[in-house]
Sequence to fold (544 residues):
Amino acid sequence: MTTATTTRPALPSPLRLGLARGGSELREFFRQKENLIFTVSLPAVLMLLLGTVYVKEAAAAQMFAASMIGAGIISTSFVGLGMSVVGDREDGTLKRLRGTPMPFTSYFIGKIVLVFVSSLVEAALLAVVGIVRFDLQLPTSLDKWLTFAWVFSLGVIACSLIGVALSALAKSTKTAAGVFNLPYVVLQFLSGVFIMQSALPESLRTVGSFFPLKWVCQGFRSVFALDDGYAVMEAAGSWELGRTALVLGAWTVIGLVLVARTFRWSNTSR
Amino acid sequence: MNAIRVRGLTKAYKGHRAVAGVDLDVARGEVFAVLGPNGAGKTTSVEILEGHRDRDGGEVSVLGVDPAEGGREWRSKLGIVLQSATDAATLTVREAVRHYAGYYADPRDPEEVIDLVGLTEKAKARVGTLSGGQRRRLDVALGIIGRPELVFLDEPTTGFDPEARRQFWGLVKRLAAEGTTILLTTHYLDEAEALADRVAVLAGGRIVAEGTPRTLGGRANADATVRYLAAGGYTEIRTSEPAKTIAELARHGEPAELTVTRPSLEDVYLELIK
Fold:
């Protein structure tokens, strides 16, 4: 490099900027009532309502809570992040950021921080509702928690990427609600959240099995099952953790490719 | 080296030529205004210079760099003031300014910038609660926080009340006095006249006139109109030598309601964009 550039103070590193973005994103997220009501509280409300109908015994409480936690983190990652990117495009955040020396990587790191923290808060909220209302028992073995950690991480990353990719389809936050909520609600039916998957016709079950939600929920059910005998209730009769990793991994790759190809800084660019 | 150098810039959307061969030079430290009606290609041109939009053809150099290839270093020398953003609504003014200061290597002091744009009393207010004029002043704060060498102001005072506009002009003059190069687009002629060292008029994607606000479109040399009241009606005389005309009139006594006018910037402008 030439001396002219070394005399200028260096710009902050992308990682540092990304963490600063994450802090700012979280601050904004938790200050927005719509987020707190729709993205964060809705799964908890659904859990309370549906749980009152479904949960008659300890086993049902464990399985139902596990599925709801799965659905909850898809709400914060897929719906929440997708909506936040659409919002950033609509309100000028992305346009402003593009005019600053902040690299795209930092924007993305900020979103990852936002999604991980909001999804953890969501999972904790649902767990607390489960414990208080349905006597949910948390797993005690390290093994189960490790499974929880990787299913959570992989699920959140895959669904975040798909959410960001789908954000290209929505021109405004008004249309975005449809773009994100329709698939989300349908997939909850197909993935064993509202109805046990084994109760669904084969065709619907197969469709649900193509998408991440089923695998996240199934992974969480394996974590919250009081014993592994519960696996017989799954459509396949086992937890299929290897396949879960495979499907979520595949969606992560698909999501990355889609984001790289479809991401737009604004609604009018080019 | 000029801050901005543009040669033969073109950009079309679906067959419509939005920018049809623009040449532009803006010197360092200059305040340059681009005037033009809606759809003249102002925003498209500016967005190309900002690196927000691809161009179809022509050469563009902004601070010595082609905007299509500008990296982080280059962006850190620019200040882009958005015209319709509603972002950061739930942050406070202070939080937003501090956050954006963190993007730059050598930012201005956030408190100083908040004070400069006159938002000190609103520093703790949520951005979403600001009035339109206050919101735009925050946009300026975020645009200048990184100590930019060149600031883009795209129709900055649209929707301002007269007092807010005057305050805003004061702010732009202070920036200019510090040596910042400013490229301003506006459809307010008084704004261009008050702020700009030089003005270009853009119409139909081309620059149809360029000069200082005083000389634009041959305004300084244009015929003057001498007007006075005589025998129950106004008489108007167009002349290149108004002093001589008045001297002749004065020989017959003092003419009533005597005025001498030259075409205003607005007259010249309206003629140019026809």
Summary: The mean pLDDT of chain B is 89.
